[in-house]
Amino acid sequence: MKRFFYAFSFLLLFANLVNAQQNKSDREKYNFNYGWKLNVGAVEEAKKPEFDDQKWTAVNLPFAWNQAEAFKKDIRDLSTGIAWYRKTFQLPKDSSDKKVFIEFEGVRQMGEVYLNGTFIGRHENGAMAFGFDLTPYVKPYPQENVIAVKTDNDWRYKEKASNSGFQWNDRNFNANYGGLPKNVYLHMKSKVYQTLPLFSTLGTTGTYVYATDFNIVEKKAVVNVSSQVKNELSTPIKAQLKVSVVDMQGKEVASFLGDSYTVNPNEKKDLKASKALNNLNFWSWGYGYLYTVTSEVLVDNKSVDKVAITTGFRKAKFEKGMIYLNDRVIMMHGYAQRTSNEWPSVGMSVPAWMSDYSNSLMVKSNGNLVRWMHITPWKQDVESCDRVGLIQAMPAGDSEKDVTGRRWEQRTELMRDAIIYNRNNPSILFYESGNNSISEEHMKEMLAIRNQYDPYGGRAIGSREMLDSKVAEYGGEMLYINKSAKHPLWATEYSRDEGLRKFWDDFTPPFHKNGTGGTNHSNANGARLTDTSAYNRNQDTHAVENVERWYDYWEQRPGTGERVNSGGVNIIFSDSNTHYRGQENYRRSGEVDPMRIPKDGFYAHQVIWDGWVDTETPKAHIVGHWNYEKEVTKDITVISTADVVELFVNNVSLGKGLQSKRFLFTFKNVQFKPGSIKAVGYDKSGKQVCENEIRTAGKPYAVKLSTIERPGGTLANANDLAIVQVEVVDDKGNRCPTALNMIDFEVKGQGTFVGGIAQGPDNYIGASSLPVECGVNRIMVRSTETEGLITIKASSNSLKSTTLAVKTIKTDLGKLSVNLPNENLPSFTEKGPTPATPSFKRARLPIAIIGAKTNSNQADAFKSYDDNELTQWSYGKNDKAVIEYELEREANISQVVMKIAGWKRKKYPIRILVDNKKVFDGSTPLSLGYVTLNVTPTKGKKVQIELVGKVKDSDAINLVEITGKVDQAGLKEGGKTIERLPIIEVEFHEQIH
């Protein structure tokens, strides 16, 4: 099926190419990426059309001039400065009466655009798309035009009008790939046209497609189109929209007309059309079902302008502390990913199919959300998430705090522009107004922007934290579990530990002990960090840590009460060329490495995230490998959603594992024996529901190559990439998981070697020889502009070498190419439509609190159950701290859930009584926020909690900011109130029978 689909994609690509070339003069949007020249350095004369650029470097966009430094240099050391890009082009024939617009998906940091020597405009924020009207300055066919772009990626670049820097141009987080690292397009339009969604530079809002009146069960919704039309004729016109809706199979499912409007000369007016549609396929997690909605402007029943929007339809709702997608509750589990989403040697400037490949891996790990960090993602990643079915949280721009004055205005302007530009993309469910809390007034401003430009998109706008905001529609802290009965709260980052893919465990060369390499580091601002050894792990413990941290969120999931947690995102998905806490010069927190090779954490998430809320398909994963020395005895960890797990070595049972954190099963002191190790999972009835087996590989014998390529084939455009995976295998073709062999690569034919990454000098960036790690590695090769074969040979001492060929296919390389970068890329639909079944079962029943009595701070007693985590009650006297709660009814209390200040490092010895009967006597465990205490089931209406001893300190959960700041986890006044039982929230539950 896959081969058939790729073949079909190629035929479709070829047919579209032929058709587009035949109708090139009717084309409205062109790929403007080909045929640029680049010079690094200040050459002011380059703005002049007669300037000689023959000695400049020929490049095709997207291309950051310093991208070869990606992962070779620390983020602080990425090259900065002035770079110029130039291109000579002709307009199409029969275009003399057309409007001409240019659209840049982005520039870093600043770009000044000149056409035929005339200054056109400047863009400075380094994050957002922008464009200009070239019509007054462009020369008609067959004359040549010269466009020149001066770029400046100085970290300290300041806006010329205000002399203000941009908060998000931050040397910790926002990797600095300079120049034109994103796509560029040219648009040809008539004098009556639908505008582009580029507000800051053109003052226009484009076309808005949205659905209303959903009936998910009956697959119905009303599809609405509102398109801003501008009349640049000298007379008024009467215009209306004609809308066509085409499904993914190419079938037109609807065609309808809007009302007729009079548009006066030089006026912009929103034209509207809508229709109720049946049998819709709704976009969903892992189901990137998309439609093409084409809006035509008709003047006197003649089409004068046409815009095609690829979009999807889905319903979203945010209430009762939960997130609803197509009427089904979904708990967020995914990744806080750097917006740069970078790769070794090429930075962020990858072809669109590689964005799909990377983002689809998040879905295949059972992640459903990517929270892009600090700045708005580029359009290629936004559209990619639509195709792969990955929900997005879209920021505007921020560093780590609220700001005022011009810097705040820059943030609101960027949010406005990003919403207008991306509001047709169904995968965006959240607009993030800040990477830290913002004031309520600022939140109101952001909400007003959303309401003005995207009132019907079904998206929540909020910010990190905002726990008690009356305006924000979602929130959540960075590291801790939050709960709410109102707007959803999900963790914007958690589990930030680091671990190289190279290191399996303590028993496998090169023997990386936990904590190694984390004590000698300073952050990007030069400040020394406190000891961060606790963050530096190997694959074994990194995977286990991910599971342990997730359990705290899962324990408070929807279905566990009226106040629930809506999940969170692990930081990060792929290792990143940004700030770090280890001896390597890049962040290694990813569940895949920079070449997207999975680590054990990837498979751990596949297991624990398999479901919308509750785990739905039982799975098991044995952490590690099974290729040790004969004398090795070690603990084996199995990650599973089964109720019981049994371990077998060579079909001999070692018994059942010790379960912890629900998903972890530990088998102590397992002796290695060559052969197989197998984990079998059972449900509560003893029925087998899953298994996972690992076999011992033989001695390294040969080198094996395979490719990951663009669906339909690698394009011969000097910019497409093919990923080549190299493995060291035994004589039966099995990967040798402990191999560290050096591999020599030789590339010939119509391609060039780009390289990969490994631990060693300069991280082996650009090196033609690099080692496998854990038996595998990857490199990239780049096509040339000539179709043909790229031949890759891989060899290693004492191993059988191998050769592989990649065939590249012809594409339109014209200065105005008719082949767009994302054309004909397939959607990922493997998960299928939103299931009609419930996403969770209610696990327990909360009992409401109607009052509380205490001998100290009585007026604050209600704050311990007010559904506001920024308030708390604390006993202020020197005698025994005690508080008594009255419940709404008599109930059989079986669990007490508490959030007590200092939760990550303070253990409180407490006693709990229900109607004066002791049900719990012990210490609260450490957590990321809430603790669930199982108590002796006891019927009653009054619950008393008292502190019965000294509070104990622990550093078992070590969370330190990159600045060295240690968060107090809810403690006030430096923790002086810890003896006084500071309760932030408390809940009482009874079991459901």
UniProtKB/TrEMBL annotation:
Q: Which residues form a coiled coil?
A: none
Give start and end of each Glycoside hydrolase family domain: 716-804
Which GO annotations describe the biological process of this protein?
Answer: carbohydrate metabolic process
- Per the record, the domain of life is Bacteria
Residues in Glycoside hydrolase family 2 immunoglobulin-like beta-sandwich domain copies: 215-314
Q: Which UniProt keywords apply?
A: Glycosidase, Hydrolase, Signal
Q: Which residues form the DUF4982 domain?
A: 634-690
Family, similarity comment: Belongs to the glycosyl hydrolase 2 family.
Q: What is this protein called?
A: Glycosyl hydrolases family 2
This chain's source organism reads Flavobacterium fluvii
